[in-house]
Amino acid sequence: MGERLSNTAIEQLRDALHAVGTPDFFEAYKTFFRARIAFGTFLMLRFDADQTPLLLDHWIEPGKLIGRPLEDYMESSYGFDPFYLHRGLPKGGGVFRLADIAPDRFFSSEYYLQYYRGTGLCDEVGLLAPLQDGGVAHLSLSKRDSQGPFRRSELRDLKSYAPLLLELLAQHCNAVAPAPANQPAIARPPLSDAIRGYAGDRLNIGLTVREAQIAGLVLQGHSNASAAKLLSIATETSKVHRRNLYRKLVISSQRELFGVFKHLL
What is the tally of structural domains in the chain? Predict the structure, then answer.
């Protein structure tokens, strides 16, 4: 993949352009990627704030992943996905590697270890394209363990085509995936609300709003400092809330915290 488009690349992009808004787009779009990058999953989704993702189409290499990762993701674990949670996209969207947008403790989180690495995946790249009605189109490519992480050359070449690929993705999703206001959508309460509600209703433990927020951010892979920045509080204040949270739950680690609330995934 150089700066000058080959005849094959031009034909593949033309096919994808002609297929925008039709059932043929996904396969045409995947063909362009497949000719240049090896991957184990290829997923196309629409994200809307506080809504369950809308799965537009998908391909998963048969028999290569462990468990039922797509089902688990769509049912609940999407709420821990850094791509789903990413905010502040540039106007035209962008191409991101998981490591570029994940929280600072994400790769030691129980979600990553159990729900991500546990499936046999080792790396992910995502295209995120803003939609005209406020949603975000997401194209996810993942590598399996046996394939190894994305190579620098693959990432460089993918980013060189990013403007075209993002525009195609946005045009297709604008055409086939209307905003939730025009179709049924399942709202999901904020993770902190679910944590606080479960602690009070089932465990008879009263968590403060801040303690529940800290719990959710820790589970998503944030350190005390990162959580404090998101909540606009001091790092020492974040540490105090975390200590109080652990004391009330009678736990001492992020792993135990995950054990208490993992059913909320």
Answer: 2
